[in-house]
Amino acid sequence: MGRGKIVIRRIDNSASRQVTFSKRRNGLLKKAKELAILCDAEVGVVVFSGTGRLYDYASTSMKSVIERYTRAKAENHLILDTASEIKFWQREATSLRQQLHKLQETHRQLMGEELSGLSVKDLENLENQLEMRLRGVRKTKEQLLINEIQELNQKGSLIHQENMELYQKINIMHQENRELHKKVYAPTEENDPNRNSVIPHSFHITKEVNALIHLGLRQQHQHGEELKLGAPKLGIFQVK
Q1: What is the C-alpha to C-alpha distance for residues 66 and 62, in angstroms, rounded to an integer?
Q2: What is the pLDDT of residue 50?
Q3: Range 118-127 average pLDDT
Q4: Is residue 230 part of a domain?
Q5: Number of domains forming the structure of the chain
């Protein structure tokens, strides 16, 4: 008569549990040793009893087995990560290709191509999209024109201001010329009104206010003749 099937569960009796642990521990270590010898495998077994006692076996050394285990686990983890990453990027590439195909199809439809397969509702949606994009283009164009007009207005204001400053400078020069005329001719006219022809140095100013003012120097020649020397012409331009 054969042995009955043993139910795998925790043994409640501590003595029986200790006896079972000792028997199965010895059997496990024996099987590990046989596996290392028969199959030329590097085997390491670590067992802790219920009381915390350590039992181990290593076909070479426990340190060598643990180091090899750590390296192998890291390499397997890296391989799994690489494979997962490759699958992820493959899915991303597939999704991007689908999006690109859809965008190309939409672009062709917006250009008025490949419309034969669209329904009336699809055509209406396409028409609405085109109108919205056209309004956006017009709005951007109007804003650019407004900005250019504002910039030109600012430049015009600056030019106008510069013209006003130049006009003020011209008025100041005109006033200075009038004062210079008074200083030069006032004493001479009071003493001798007819002395203009014998003054060695004199200024000739036209009667018109806005006309060019001609300044000249006259010197008497050695033989009594008058010699006219050229002088720079100063004038005021009338600003309209």
Answers
A1: 6
A2: 87
A3: 84
A4: no
A5: 3
